[in-house]
Write a structure and sequence with these properties.
Blueprint: E1 7-12, E2 17-21, E3 26-29, E4 37-42, E5 46-51, E6 56-60, E7 68-80, E8 84-86, E9 97-98, E10 118-120, E11 125-126, E12 129-130, E13 133-134, E14 141-143, E15 160-171, E16 177-179, E17 193-199, E18 212-217, E19 222-225, E20 238-241, E21 247-252, E22 258-262, E23 267-271, E24 282-286, E25 295-300, E26 305-309, E27 313-318, E28 329-342, E29 348-352, E30 358-362, E31 373-376, E32 380-381, H1 384-387, H2 389-400, H3 403-417, H4 429-438, H5 445-453, H6 462-476, E33 542-546, H7 566-576, H8 580-602, E34 615-626, E35 634-645, E36 651-661, E37 664-671, E38 677-681, E39 687-692, H9 694-699, E40 703-707, H10 710-727, E41 739-743, E42 748-751, E43 771-774, E44 780-783, E45 789-792, E46 798-801, E47 821-838, E48 842-844, E49 855-856, E50 876-878, E51 883-884, E52 897-900, E53 917-932, E54 934-936, E55 942-947, E56 961-965, E57 970-974, E58 985-989, E59 995-1000, E60 1006-1010, E61 1015-1019, E62 1030-1034, E63 1042-1047, E64 1052-1056, E65 1061-1065, E66 1076-1081, E67 1084-1089, E68 1095-1099, E69 1102-1103, E70 1108-1109, ...
Helix pairs in contact: 2-3, 2-7, 3-4, 11-12
Subcellular location: Cytoplasmic vesicle, Autophagosome membrane; Lysosome membrane
Family: Belongs to the TECPR1 family.
GO cellular component, one term: autophagosome membrane
Length: 1199
């Protein structure tokens, strides 16, 4: 499965464009090789470039989700007494064909494709949907007059009507260089362009994927490309931006940083760039770091600026941030470069002056933005793989077969390295490599000679090369960084620890002195004027590099710095031939053999008595406990965990909590085999966790304990989790039928369902279910009974379950050794700035005494300022500053404010006469890095996902998996099987609007919810036609906007935005859309319908004997074929739960047990029937409801 990667773009001196992946080892030539380029500028989703004809081109990556744009126009009609509704309108009316406002005339044939890179998807058709409700067949909506409120129903006073026509166009020029054509004069751009830079995508989310594209013409003028965004990757027009002088080069960062260089050698900085002014307002001038040599090249990142002066010196700008884009001072760095480029997380690359190699800046971290040292990238080109194959095979043959071949190889290579015989040598790849190395053009001659005279047998060269390296180190006072176990140490560059100029004592070295001169696969540098194109094994000479789309993860190693050797590649190919299935089979076989041997060897000693009957093991510690009596507060306690190992080797544990009550020592104890869950509690002030038992779940009052440090809490959590699992004889990964859930904190829990959970004479209450934690951090999870489990993080990244267990704080035996990977997640923390209007000053932060805090959370009850708001827990760290969030529900004005008549009320994005208060939402991103049994599925980010709840199917049979991207596109995953749960690619399913929820049932019934709250059914989905053919609009329940759908075997349930749960009646195989909605319950947050049509929900406001909880797992009981809605609710673990999926649980209770019970005790059965029939009338519409007046108890563990 492919790990997520990004690309470094570069142009060689012949104008060919290459890319190097962060997980790759070879430069790959760009697919479209017809053009020669001067410069490129890249971001993650695309690359812009200037070709040698001075024309601008864009290269948009192909993806599974197409780039579509919706064109729309409205057909308007007026009623007259003679002919009814007709096209004849009054002179004061709008056009017959117009835009939504009626002010712009736009007929169907007036719409043309903006450039040759687009194509129409289909012809015009009528949209038969208004505000989530289906209209009559013609799509008409009626009103009294233009403009007015339109409804789908025709009334006696409906004098006008209109309908919406839509048509989609699709961007087709992907994975090719598409020429940007000027709208005004197709043959001529405003000026021939000389430099280009793209960035600015982090300034705002609106419109989606907006980019700032800046260009510099040969005349020194700066141009800005308007309207470049996801739906319009080419933009529309060029607009001129005035500058204080002639500009040579420009650089744009991902946020609001933009620098350019002038002919005179100064830099200019653009100020005032924000979401409303992406072009900025004014320029400021920054002087060159050196008075004799002006700035030649500049590159900016998130909050860093690097530049190269005309004497090729490299400089770093101190003090740059969004409040001070000009920075404060320059620091000179060691090394001489032609140019530098800054990447996504401020990583830096440069092109060396003398050898034209690309160098990567090592040691760049958030705390040390200038990095430590330059290191050359020695990756070869993709095209070299086949040409270097002969030397590789010789090397591997020497290793794996005979000494003769090995000696021959050594002799050949030693002969090749001899400078005196270079005229008679055959031009084999190995000889070319060593000749290039020996004749390194610009490097110091003494070094080239030293390395050339050394023995270079590739299998015995380590000693000689190390000697040469140490000699060079002594000579140049350099530290050589040589990682352990590197098969080819000479491929590693010598580099110094830190090279800020201010800290250096020895003279400045040119970058060429770091050149790698004795490696088999890297070559000496050639002068720029070399007319012949370089041979197979020579390293390319680079003219330009762009890291704007390259994200280097500081935790994962790069493969760029060691040349691939023959030995490692052959070992790699050998290991790749062993499939995971074979490995699993071998493990199983070895385990069986060891088990049989153990049994065989212990058989003779069975009659001996056991020496030790049982053992006791105790762990003690000091924690704090949230006491049971009022006033509730934390108190210091001693805690002891006692573990008993019985004669059968089974372990049981008891947890004792010793406390003082009125100066009297008391204790409470908990048997760990009764504990149903141990969960970390989200609390800024304490490192706390909660223990639940069935009784405490009913009370909504867990045992809460707090540790002094996070590490101590994790130690206790890990130990208690392991003890609980041992007490319940649970180990290894979750089964395919497991029920997965996620808390509001993002923690993942899994429970093994008992057959009695769903049916049977004695149904198991769901508060007795045992939940254990699995490492990782997610927002939602979906599973099925074939073991296919996918999850989505808060940052919409898709993750695949690998089959492991443990991870996170769960270490040792309780965690699997393999299948655990690093996982990260990013989410936003929100606070609100509140203001009230007064007649003197207008809106101000001085409210009434009864008002909420002027900086608060969403409820207004808790004060949250920018300074006192912390990340959710110590595991999280801030990764951005506070910024205004313009995406708040209800809309905002240009400054992010929302208005209302008073606190709290419904907010809207425009001011009216009655609005006396306003608020705006501030957001700040934080990140968590953890680990667990999850692998990322790039590159599409997802909002929702659903897997078909299949039961006994063939292992090789495809598993239907549907998803919705975070942009609202509906996707179908191809190639998902039990053996390959990741699948192969996404298939896009067209829709007329963005969607937010999707679910696929057991017989390929696909239901979905659109963003406007309307429901849709997808027709004709089958294994042979995985995407189906068309959407059917299903009317929503009266005046309700839907937000989630879940489809089981035969049942369809939906959830509306007010928390009401609805069941779809009348669904039959011949009429799968059903006939009507039936209300089931209220106060529901999330729900999941399983393969047996079982219904589980996350409910709000569940009453316990001690307190009220939000986010509680509840199970619908009494679900039968004749009673698909069920009868009543059974309350499980909570609160603080956010998501649950039971779509893997296809375990049915044995049916043989039911009749036996009936025969044995008919009276009891009769009594049960009476109770059931009574419960049927009583509970069929049981609401999850408590009195609204009752406040939530602050002691309960809530979200």
């Amino acid at each position: 499965m492919a790990m997520p990667s990004s690309l470094l773009w570069a142009v060689d001196i012949f104008g060919r464009v290459y890319t190097l992946s962060t997980v790759g080892q070879y430069w790959e030539l760009c697919k479209d090789t017809q053009l020669e380029f001067k410069r490129v500028s890249a971001v993650k989703q695309c690359c812009w470039g200037i070709a040698c004809d001075h024309q601008v081109y864009t290269y948009v990556f192909s993806g599974d989700v197409p780039i579509r744009y919706q064109e729309e126009t409205y057909e308007n009609q007026r009623w007259n007494p003679v002919g009814g509704f007709c096209e004849k309108l009054l002179p004061s009316d709008r056009w017959q064909w117009s835009d939504v406002s009626g002010l712009k005339h736009q007929q169907l044939d007036s719409f043309t494709l903006p450039s040759p890179h687009w194509e129409w998807e289909s012809d015009w058709y009528v949209d038969e949907n208004i505000g989530g409700e289906p209209t009559e067949k013609g799509g008409w909506t009626y009103a009294i007059d233009f403009p007015s409120t339109y409804t789908k129903d025709k009334r006696w006073n409906s004098c006008v009507r209109r309908r919406r026509w839509i048509r989609y166009r699709r961007y087709k020029s992907r994975d090719v260089w598409a020429k940007i054509v000027s709208q005004d004069e197709p043959d001529q751009l405003p000026d021939p362009f000389n430099d280009i830079s793209i960035g600015g995508w982090e300034i705002t989310d609106e419109p989606l994927g907006r980019l700032s594209v800046w260009a510099v013409s040969l005349q020194g003028r700066v141009w800005y490309r308007e309207n470049v965004c996801h739906h319009n990757p080419e933009g529309s027009t060029w607009s001129l931006v005035t500058t204080p002088g002639e500009v040579v080069q420009i650089s744009c960062g991902p946020y609001d940083l933009l620098w350019a260089t002038l002919w005179e050698g100064q830099a200019i900085v653009r100020e005032g760039i924000d979401r409303n002014n992406p072009q900025g307002i004014s320029w400021s001038i920054v002087e060159s770091p050196s008075s004799e040599n002006g700035i030649m090249h500049v590159s900016v990142g998130v909050d860093v600026v690097w530049c190269v002066t005309k004497d090729r010196k490299v400089w770093f700008r101190r003090g740059v941030n969004s409040h001070n884009p000009c920075g404060t001072s320059w620091i000179e760095m060691v090394g001489e470069m032609m140019m530098v480029t800054v990447g996504l997380n401020n990583q830096v690359w440069g092109i060396g002056c003398d050898d034209r190699a690309i160098y990567f800046r090592q040691g760049v971290t958030p705390s040390e933005l200038s990095g430590k040292t330059w290191k050359a990238i020695v990756s070869g080109r993709e095209s070299d793989r086949s040409q270097t194959g002969s030397s590789t095979s010789l090397l591997s043959a020497g290793c794996f077969f005979t000494d003769d071949i090995q000696n021959q190889t050594s002799a050949v290579i030693q002969g090749d390295a001899d400078p005196s015989s270079d005229t008679e040598l055959p031009t084999s790849p190995a000889s070319t490599a060593l000749l290039g190395a020996a004749a390194a053009g610009d490097g110091p001659a003494s070094q080239a000679d030293t390395s050339a005279r050394l023995p270079v047998d590739p299998l015995h060269a380590e000693q000689g090369e190390a000697t040469a390296a140490s000699a060079r180190n002594d000579k140049d006072n350099l530290d050589m960084n040589k990682p352990p176990g590197n098969p080819n140490p000479s491929a590693e560059l010598q580099w110094i620890n830190i090279d800020l100029k201010e800290a250096q004592k020895h003279p400045v070295l040119s970058v060429s002195s770091f050149a790698d001169t004795s490696s088999l696969s890297s070559l000496g540098a050639f002068s720029v004027g070399a007319e012949d194109q370089y041979g197979a094994d020579e390293h390319p000479l680079w003219a330009w590099v762009s890291g704007g789309g390259c994200l280097v993860d500081l935790h994962s190693p790069l493969k760029w710095f060691s040349a691939p050797s023959g030995l490692s590649s052959s070992v790699q190919s050998l290991s790749l031939s062993i499939t995971p299935a074979q490995t699993a089979a071998w493990r199983k076989q070895i385990f069986q053999q060891l088990s049989e041997r153990t049994k065989r060897e212990l058989e003779n000693f069975r009659h001996y008595e056991q020496a030790i009957e049982q053992s006791v093991w105790v762990k003690t510690g000091a924690l704090q406990w949230w006491r049971n009596w009022k006033p509730h507060k934390w108190m210091d306690v001693r805690v002891a965990l006692e573990q008993f190992t019985g004669s059968d080797g089974m372990r049981d544990s008891i947890l004792f909590i010793y406390y003082m009550y009125h100066e009297e020592k008391k204790y409470i104890h908990v048997f760990l085999n009764e504990v149903t869950i141990i969960v970390e509690v989200l609390n800024e002030a304490k490192h706390s966790f909660a223990l639940y038992t069935p009784e405490r779940t009913k009370q909504r009052w867990p045992i809460r304990l707090a540790a002094a440090t996070e590490q101590e809490m994790h130690d206790w959590l890990s130990l208690l989790n392991m003890s609980c699992c041992e007490s319940r004889r649970i180990q290894g990964p979750p089964s395919h039928h497991a029920i997965w859930s996620v808390t509001c904190k993002g923690d993942i829990f899994v429970s093994e369902p008992s057959p009695e959970l769903e049916a049977g004479p004695q149904q198991m209450p769901c508060d007795q279910m045992f939940w254990r934690q699995v490492g990782g951090h997610l927002r939602l999870i979906e599973s099925n009974s074939r073991g296919v489990v996918w999850g989505i993080g808060h940052d919409h990244t898709a993750w695949l379950y690998t089959g492991g267990y443990g991870g996170g704080f769960i270490q040792g035996l309780a965690s699997s050794a393999d299948n655990i990977y690093t996982q990260s997640d990013v989410k936003c923390v929100y606070i609100y700035e509140n203001q009230r209007w007064n007649p003197v000053t207008g809106y101000s932060s001085r409210g009434l005494p009864t008002d909420r805090y002027m900086w608060s959370d969403a409820s207004g009850l808790q004060e949250c300022t920018k300074t006192n708001t912390k990340p959710p827990s110590p595991q999280w760290s801030w990764v951005s500053d506070w910024y205004i969030d313009f995406s708040a529900a209800g809309g905002t004005d240009r400054e992010g404010w929302q208005y209302a008549a008073d606190f709290p009320a419904s907010y809207h994005g425009h001011k009216t006469m009655k609005d006396f208060v306003r608020r705006r939402r501030w957001a700040r991103k934080c990140k968590i890095v953890t680990n667990g049994p999850w692998l990322e599925v790039p590159p599409v980010t997802l909002w929702d996902i659903s897997i078909i709840p299949s039961s006994d199917a063939d292992d090789e049979e495809a598993v239907a998996l549907w998803a919705i991207s975070d942009k609202g596109d509906v996707l179908c995953r191809l190639g998902v099987t039990q053996q390959n749960p990741a699948g192969t690619s996404w298939l896009h399913v067209g829709t007329d609007q963005p969607f937010i929820s999707i679910s696929i049932g057991a017989f390929y019934q696909v239901w979905a919810i659109a963003r406007d709250g309307s429901a849709f059914y997808r027709g004709s989905v089958s294994p042979n036609k995985p995407a189906g053919d068309c959407w059917y609009h299903i009317p929503s329940p009266q005046k309700q906007k839907l937000k989630q759908v879940s489809v089981g075997r035969t049942s369809v349930f939906v959830l509306d935005k007010n928390g009401n749960l609805w069941y779809r009646q009348g669904i039959t195989p011949s009429y799968p859309q059903g006939s009507a909605w039936d209300h089931v319950s209220n106060n529901i947050r999330k729900m999941s319908v399983g393969p047996l049509d079982q219904v589980w929900v996350i409910a709000d406001k569940v009453q316990g004997s001690h307190s009220l909880s939000c986010g509680t797992v509840c199970h619908r009981t009494g679900v039968q074929p004749l009673e698909p809605k069920g009868l009543s609710w059974d309350y499980g673990i909570g609160g603080g739960w956010e998501h649950i999926t039971v779509r893997g649980n296809a375990t049915e209770a044995s049916r043989g047990a039911v009749p036996d019970t009936t025969e044995e005790n008919p009276a009891a059965s009769k009594e049960g029937e009476d109770e059931e029939s009574k419960g049927k009338t009583e509970h069929s519409k049981t609401p999850l409801m408590v009195s609204e007046s009752q406040e939530l108890d602050r002691n309960s563990v809530n979200c």
